[in-house]
Specification:
The complex is a heterodimer of chains A (719) and B (326). Among the domains of chain A are: 7-53, no CATH class; 61-152, RRM (RNA recognition motif) domain (Alpha-Beta Plaits, 2-Layer Sandwich); 186-199 and 469-613, Methylamine Dehydrogenase, Chain H (7 Propeller), CATH 2.130.10.10; 624-656. Chain A is built from 10 helices and 41 strands. In chain A, strands 16, 17, 18, 19 and 20 form a 5-stranded antiparallel beta sheet that branches. In chain A, a hairpin with a 5-residue loop joins strand 33 (518-521) and strand 34. With 326 residues, chain B is an all-beta fold. The mean pLDDT of chain B is 89. Chain B is globular. In chain B, the strands form 7 sheets. Chain B has a 4-stranded antiparallel beta sheet with strand order 1-28-27-26, with no helix packed on it. Chain B has 1 helix and 28 strands. Classes of the chains: A alpha+beta (719), B mainly beta (326). At the A-B interface, helix 8 and helix 9 of A face loops of B.
């Protein structure tokens, strides 16, 4: 831990290094993430946690047992053999291999200690060589050095576990009971993380909780909004509570990089990747799955990055996150990942493979779960130079029965999009043209809920158009596509069922020449934001898909992120620190009215707090929207009151400000008058105040215009 | 009204100053020639030739007879406004950053930059009525705090000197003894370099602009923070309307980053704020570089801005401006 240097020392060091401290703006210095430069977080528990992690410091040592017992002459040979085996796995420290010798007969004792550079290498060595057959008589038995200690400590007598008295927790869903039905969001700017209410009626955010250095890299809400997760070097933590945010649970995972919740927020998946000592090896990946509420480690997965990289974007560290995809529907029953030619589906009852084995799928590169049902859609690309067609299949879990399959020819790329109710699956297929020089696009639309799952093929009118973005209407039957070939693409809306064509896709409209490259549907459907991010500098168009008309066209210059609030009432657009300027966020109403704007330097994250799904049945919702007028009356009256109150407050505030200012001005005038004489003296008696300046004075000026000399005859005719 | 574009400088503008009558506008720029213009139509009257470096600041006497200019050539010069004749040169050992005549024009406060091992300093010079009697002696020298002092002006009745600079602290000094009387609070004060400081017409309060993207209004006598105006850009220049309760902030992103960003991102606007409510009223666009200098005509009916782009823009307000209601 770095001690605080006195200012004098800092100055001395600076002058020695030739740095002018006055030219350095200390606030502009950003420390790298994940490194606290010896300055510890203010969180005491984090400190304690660190102590737990490095209990003994022997985690990098393994004990290899069942070695041959050899006399002195053969000692070196055996040592070189062992060294050969174990240096393949990791870098053995200098003097890191020790084989004890019996003093009496100078023979080895049949075991040795190996010290690696890192704990990960030691673990790996244990995994790989436990049970290694040197010959028939000598099967290695490998243990972690620390484990001996641990198992020695186990008491011989079983002691019944203590029953802890029940401590009632806080209502973690308290935020849902807000009387004004507001939503919360979290922002991260600079070193501060802050949770705020979106108080749209007052056109400002209302602070809930703020903490400096809350997280070391990012924060994340759990999918139902119950927890806020923070990431630290020692692991992840979740926070929540009724009024403030208390830490509810910690999950130890050193150097955790990424986290992911299961959709029902029962489990938390954490991921870390460790640099190997040998640069030729792939990174070592550790994935842990914790039970969110108890903090218990349910299952861990360890391996090299290559094992987890299949199906990802590829490359050196091409692990695509999340590695594990969860089946949806809120019960968190299954999770799955892609392996080499297999799809591994695990169930959370036992945290083992369903039916104890993975599903064999040659060359599988992508899959996704239905958002509601235990159905997996998977994609296999073309093989054998086109002899074996590409294939999209729907597989039911746990029966592993193939529900539907579609073969596709000359495919170059394929993406799958599920509609949020799991009613439809759209497969976006890029196909090669006959010459194989260019590609064209089509959609395969699966009607999942209908008998035999019919498939419909949709092709764009202009075959050369590229698909820039695709999005389903949440809970709806429509989808939007941005397509085009030129800088200003077109946006088309399609419906899976219309009055004329039940059960057939039909186009609703196409609007041409939009400045948009991203689609953001309202979470309740009906409305969509067509956004032009990046190259379009933050163009926004709020579009009503029911009436097929634009509600507002506006701009949030340089916007990088757009997110609807979970109720579909507000939209947040943010400029994060990818840009140096303009950092901050804007809040808009669903129809594109600008509500308020907050600027924050070094703005990293804006996240709405998700809400759990509504308890209202579809019929009930239908009924409410039918009688909307009745319900909205009450809220309109409330709005009216608030706005009256607001303008009243505003007027009051202004009046106070004006009064305060008057006071200053009166004081100043008084002092100014008092000092008038002194001022005049300073100016050598000249009038000093402005009004005297322009005093009218009559000044007669005589000016000689011309002088001529003339000799006048004057006769001295005098007597 | 359409602004009058005054192109006479070849380098970025640094400072603008109207004379007391409001009929002349003096401009300083990084080219070496301070220039005087008719404040009404923007016609150029003449230049003051003699400096050999960027001119950072100027002030004009109340009778519009004398001009004092501070330059990076380590001199401060006195000029005859009418003839352009050099009357006197004060020599310093480092660039002169700011100059200000006292009430009565008998004294001038000059700040010099830190240079090599020299620290920054505030000098008070006596200005003789007759240029022939002028000497270069200092009445008072204040050794400055850390970093450059960007601006020093006289307090009421020449009793105090108010300074602000790179260390973001506003200080009030006794103009007689040189004692430090008051310092702005670190908590409530500016967080970054103070770039400009301008007094109200009666000297009772002053406005400071800073790179921390804010401008602050202070009471001159007690150094009480009265108002804060927050903007999106570093503030390079500030001005106060002598007529209405308006303040103007000018700035923009750092000149070194201008070429790499969209012109809209630069925000090279002169922003008008309500002085009392601290709310933004509007902006005047036009410059294609950051605004370095702002000045209000003493009659409050026009203002001018000078930019990194080398232009001075002279704006006469339309009638609408005087009817703005918040």
């Amino acid at each position: 831990m770095a001690e605080l240097l006195p200012m004098k020392d800092i100055e001395a060091t600076a002058s020695r290094l030739g740095i002018d401290l006055s030219t350095i703006d200390l606030h502009s210095i950003r420390l790298p993430h994940s490194d606290n430069v010896g300055i510890d977080s203010d969180d005491e528990d984090v400190l304690n946690e660190e102590n737990l992690e490095f209990e003994s410091g022997f985690g990098n040592i393994i004990v290899v047992d069942n070695l041959p017992v050899v006399p002195k002459e053969k000692f070196e040979k055996l040592e070189s053999v062992i060294r050969k085996i174990y240096s393949q796995i990791g870098v053995i420290k200098n003097d890191g291999l020790w084989m004890p010798v019996d003093h009496d007969n100078e023979k080895t004792l049949g075991y040795c200690f190996i010290e690696y550079n890192t704990n990960q290498e030691a673990e790996l060595a244990k995994e790989r060589t436990h049970g290694y057959k040197l010959d028939r008589a000598h099967i290695f038995s490998v243990n972690m050095f620390d484990d001996f200690d641990r198992f020695m400590k186990v008491p011989d007598q079983w002691a019944p576990p203590e029953t802890k008295p029940y401590a009632p927790g806080e209502n973690l869903q308290h935020w849902l009971t807000d009387a004004k039905a507001r939503d919360q969001f979290v922002i991260r700017a600079g070193s501060d993380t802050e949770v705020l209410w979106n108080d749209a009626r007052h056109l400002k955010p209302d602070p809930v909780y703020k903490r400096t250095f809350w997280t070391e890299s990012f924060v994340q809400w759990s999918p139902l909004g119950t927890y806020l997760a923070t990431v630290h070097r020692q692991g992840a933590a979740v926070w929540g509570g009724a009024t403030t945010f208390n830490r509810l649970m910690r999950y130890a995972h050193p150097q955790v990089k990424l986290i992911d919740f299961s959709p029902g927020e029962k489990y938390l998946v954490t991921y870390s990747s460790h640099e190997p000592s040998n640069p030729r090896d792939a990174n070592r990946v550790v994935i842990n799955i914790f039970d969110v509420r108890t903090g218990k480690l349910m299952r861990d997965f360890k391996g090299s990055a290559d094992d987890f990289a299949i199906g990802g974007a590829g490359g050196v560290t091409g692990v695509s996150w999340p590695v594990f995809k969860w089946s949806n529907g809120g019960d968190d029953k299954y999770f799955a990942r892609i392996g080499k030619n297999v799809l591994s589906v695990y169930e959370t009852d036992t945290f083992s493979l369903v039916d104890k084995k993975s599903i064999k799928v040659e060359n599988i590169i992508d899959f996704s779960w239905s958002p509601t049902d235990p159905i997996i859609a998977l994609f296999v690309p073309e093989m054998g130079g086109g002899n074996q067609p590409a294939r999209v299949s729907l597989v039911q879990i746990p029966s592993k029965e193939e529900l539907r399959q579609k073969n596709l020819f000359s495919v170059s790329d394929c993406k799958m999009y599920w509609q949020s109710n799991g009613d439809y699956l759209a497969v976006h297929v890029d196909r090669f043209t006959k010459t194989k020089k260019s590609t064209y696009t089509g959609f395969e639309l699966f009607y999942i809920k209908e008998r035999d799952i019919p498939i419909e093929v949709l092709e764009l009118e202009n075959k050369n158009d590229k698909i820039i973005s695709f999005a389903w209407e949440p809970k709806g039957h429509r989808f939007a596509v941005i397509h085009g070939d030129n800088p200003k693409p077109d946006v088309s809306f399609y419906s899976m069922r219309t009055a004329q064509h039940t059960g057939r896709v039909s186009k609703l409209t196409t609007s041409k020449g939009k400045q948009a490259n991203a689609l953001f549907w309202s979470p309740v459907g009906h409305f969509i934001v067509l956004a032009g991010l990046k190259g379009f500098n933050g163009q926004l168009e709020f579009y009503n898909v029911d009436d097929l008309e634009t509600m507002a066209t506006t701009e949030h210059f340089m916007a990088t992120d757009i997110e609807w609030d979970p109720t579909g009432r507000y939209v947040a657009t943010a400029v994060t620190s990818v840009h140096e300027m303009e950092n901050g966020f804007n809040i808009w109403s669903f129809n594109g009215k600008h509500l308020y704007r907050i600027l924050k330097d070094h703005f990293f994250q804006f996240l709405w707090r998700p809400r759990p799904p509504s308890f209202l049945s579809a019929e009930k919702e239908e009924e409410i929207s039918k009688n909307l007028k009745k319900y909205s009356k009450k809220y309109e009256a409330e709005d009216q009151d608030v706005s009256l109150l607001l303008s009243e407050q505003e007027r009051e505030k202004r009046r106070l400000l004006k009064e305060e200012w008057e006071k200053w001005v009166n004081e100043w005038t008084r002092l100014h008058e008092e000092e008038k004489l002194y001022r005049q003296n300073l100016r050598d008696g000249e009038g000093s105040d402005e009004e005297e300046e322009y005093e009218a004075k009559d000044i007669e000026v005589e000016e000689v215009m011309n002088v001529t000399e003339e000799v006048i005859d004057f006769e001295y005719d005098q007597e | 009204m359409r602004p009058i574009l005054m192109k006479g400088h070849e380098r970025p503008l640094t400072f603008l100053k109207y004379n007391n009558d409001g009929d002349l506008l003096f401009s300083c720029a990084k080219d070496h020639n301070p220039t005087v213009w008719f404040a009404d139509n923007g016609e150029r009257l003449g230049t003051y030739r003699g400096h050999n470096g960027a001119v950072w600041c100027c002030d004009v006497s109340r009778d519009s007879g004398r001009l004092i200019t501070g330059s990076a050539d380590q001199t401060v010069k006195l000029w005859n406004v009418q003839t352009g004749q050099q009357l006197f040169t004060f020599n310093f050992d480092s660039p002169a950053r700011s100059v200000d005549f006292s009430v009565g024009d008998k004294l001038a406060v000059i700040t010099s930059d830190p240079f090599m091992e020299l620290t920054s300093a505030i000098h008070v010079k006596r200005i003789a009525r007759d240029p022939a009697d002028q000497t270069g002696e200092s009445v008072l020298v204040l050794k400055g705090p850390q970093g450059r002092i960007n601006r020093a002006v006289w307090g009421p009745l020449n009793r105090t000197i108010i300074s602000g600079g790179e260390d973001a602290v506003i200080r009030i000094w006794d103009a007689e003894t040189g004692k430090l009387l008051q310092e702005s609070d670190k908590e409530s004060g500016h967080k970054k370099t103070i770039t400009s400081l301008v007094k109200s017409a009666d000297g009772s309060h002053f406005l400071s602009g800073s790179l921390d993207k804010s401008a602050r209004l202070w009471d001159t006598r007690t150094l009480t923070l009265i108002k804060t105006y927050v903007t999106e850009r570093p503030v390079n220049a500030v001005a106060m309307s002598p007529l209405l309760d308006h303040v103007v902030l000018g700035g923009g992103q750092d000149a070194s980053a201008v070429t790499t960003t969209d012109h809209r991102a630069g925000k090279f606007e002169a922003k008008f704020y309500d002085k009392i409510l601290q709310e933004e009223i509007g902006g005047v666009k036009g410059h294609f570089g950051p605004i370095n200098a702002l000045a209000f005509n003493p009659d409050g009916k026009s203002f001018s801005s000078g930019g990194e782009d080398g232009y001075v823009r002279l704006h006469h307000f339309d009638q609408d401006y005087f009817n703005i209601k918040l």
